[in-house]
């Protein structure tokens, strides 16, 4: 089943990846991703931006092993991705917390389903709760937390399983603008402490540039990579870098690509 083993130093490699959905009833096909070739280095923070429907979630789900490629392949540390695994953790747009569980028990859920509950993982859960800024809230329930705090719980849960790759699908898009900016800054702080290779999806261009080492711009119909942008803005990054000329230049550049793509689709 495996193709020829690729040997490289990349954390994640996507080789000629295609994903096509087939409607079970009608047999109609949708090419969600076409010929995706990407290489991601260990410790990189990658953002994927693109218009709605360009296959961002499909790509992330394929990396997570939840969707099988129709052709091509994905390699995580030189091993072909053939299904979900403990080496990847996902943070979704909605916090997906259990309302009847406390913060601590929600954070422990990830290691619980992996049957790795131990004094050590509990200690680690507490460390990540502290890191995301929720110290003192361990025994609170989700309804007692704001949206931003709930997403912190989600993040702590993902980090506690100590994945080798962190996958985030528009995790801040349900938050109000101010909380969202604050969470972006917090995420960078947490990332700089963990240096976890991260794949973050957003449709907000400024969020992508602010967070990323590199931004992959996807275009739609079929979903494909239309540009890869290096963000050469030094870290640590404060929120006021969003007003610096290099930031604004990158905003304009990405915006013009996405605008062109959207016009092609008739979304004008
Ligand atoms: P994005 O996350 O960029 O908005 P998606 O990956 O959700 O895009 O979707 C990419 C394309 O695939 C869209 O045209 C969408 O309608 C289609 N699609 C997504 N999921 C399915 C599915 N389960 N079955 C059929 N088509 C799907
Ligand atoms: Mg999506």
Order of helices and strands: EEEHEEEHHHEHEHEEH
Portion in helices: 25-40%
Mean pLDDT: 93
Distance between the termini: 43 Å
Molecular shape: globular
Largest sheet: 6 strands, mixed
| Strand line-up across the major sheet | 6-7-8-3-9-10
User: Which structural class do you get from the secondary structure elements?
Assistant: alpha/beta
Heteromolecules bound:
adenosine-5'-diphosphate, magnesium ion
What's the total count of β strands? 10
Rg over C-alpha atoms, rounded to the nearest angstrom? 19 Å
| Spans where pLDDT lies below 50 across 5 or more residues | none
- Which strand-content bin applies to the residues? 15-25%
- Number of helical segments with 4 or more residues: 7
Task: Give a quick rundown of the structure.
The chain is α/β, with parallel strands linked by helices and 268 residues long.
Textual characterization of the structure:
By secondary structure, this protein is α/β, with parallel strands linked by helices. The chain is 34% helix and 24% strand. The protein is built from 7 helices and 10 strands. It has a 6-stranded mixed β-sheet, with helices on both faces. It has a 4-stranded antiparallel β-sheet with strand order 2-1-4-5, covered by helices on one side. A hairpin with a 2-residue loop joins strand 4 and strand 5. Helix 2 crosses helix 3 (119-131), helix 3 packs antiparallel against helix 4 and helix 6 (205-211) crosses helix 7. The longest helix is centred in the C-terminal third of the chain and has 21 residues, at 245-265. The mean pLDDT is 93. The structure holds adenosine-5'-diphosphate (ADP) and magnesium ion. Magnesium ion (MG) is lined by residues 56-57. Magnesium ion is lined by residues 56-57.
């Amino acid at each position: 089943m495996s193709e020829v083993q690729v040997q490289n130093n990349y954390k994640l490699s996507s080789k000629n990846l295609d994903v096509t959905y087939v409607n079970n009833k009608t047999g109609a096909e949708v090419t969600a991703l076409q010929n995706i070739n990407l290489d991601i280095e260990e410790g990189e923070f990658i953002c994927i931006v693109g218009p709605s429907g360009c296959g961002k979630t499909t790509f992330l789900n394929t990396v997570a092993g939840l969707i099988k490629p129709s052709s091509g392949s994905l390699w995580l540390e030189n091993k072909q991705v053939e299904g979900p695994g403990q080496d990847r953790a996902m943070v979704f747009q909605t916090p997906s917390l259990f309302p009847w569980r406390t913060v601590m028990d929600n954070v422990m859920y990830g290691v619980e389903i992996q049957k790795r509950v131990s004094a050590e993982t509990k200690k680690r859960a507490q460390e990540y709760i502290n890191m995301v800024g929720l110290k003192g809230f361990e025994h609170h329930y989700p309804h007692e937390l704001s949206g931003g705090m709930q997403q912190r719980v989600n993040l702590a849960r993902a980090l506690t399983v100590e994945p080798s790759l962190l996958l985030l699908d528009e995790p801040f898009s349900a938050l109000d603008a101010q909380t969202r900016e604050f969470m972006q800054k917090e995420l960078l702080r947490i990332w700089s402490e963990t240096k976890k290779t991260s794949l973050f999806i957003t449709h907000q261009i400024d969020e992508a540039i602010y967070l990323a080492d590199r931004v992959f711009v996807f275009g739609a119909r079929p979903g494909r990579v239309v540009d890869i942008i290096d963000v050469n803005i030094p870290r640590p990054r404060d929120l006021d870098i969003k007003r610096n000329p290099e930031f604004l230049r990158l905003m304009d550049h990405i915006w013009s690509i996405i605008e062109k793509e959207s016009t092609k689709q008739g979304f004008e």
